[in-house]
Amino acid sequence: MCIDLDHAIVGGELRPWARAIVEKLPPTYVEVSLSGTGLHIWGRGSVGRGRKLRRGEAAIEVYDWGRYITVTRQPFEGAPSELADLSRVIAELL
Questions:
Q1: Cα(28)–Cα(35) distance, rounded to whole angstroms?
Q2: Tell me: the pLDDT tens digits for 44-91?
Q3: Which regions of the chain does DSSP assign to beta strands (E)?
Q4: Buried-state track 12-26, b at ≥16 Cβ within 10 A, e below 16
Q5: Distance between CA atoms of 80 and 51, rounded to whole angstroms?
Q6: What pLDDT, on a 0 to 100 scale, did the predictor assign at position 51?
Q7: Phi, psi of 17 (to 5 degrees)
Q8: Is the model's pLDDT at 93 over the cut of 90?
């Protein structure tokens, strides 16, 4: 599954709302999106149906099937190559 943080990086810096999510993650693969302004957080978990969440400046999409996301292979801040269980993070977001 993937948590897609849109417009999370501005001027090379992670926005505070995105940093708060990233800091809650277990060790899992996170990459910079193709645009260079978003993050893809990859892991294991179930969402049921994809969701788009808007909370203030935060633009978050959560999907576990039925969507295409470009894999960039541009790790964010030395992210590990393994995938963690993101169930707790998903529950907090949804």
A1: 21
A2: 999 887 888 888 888 899 998 888 888 999 999 889 999 999 999 999
A3: 2-6, 9-10, 13-14, 30-32, 39-44, 51-55, 58-63, 84-85
A4: eebbebbeebbeebe
A5: 26
A6: 85
A7: -65, -35
A8: no
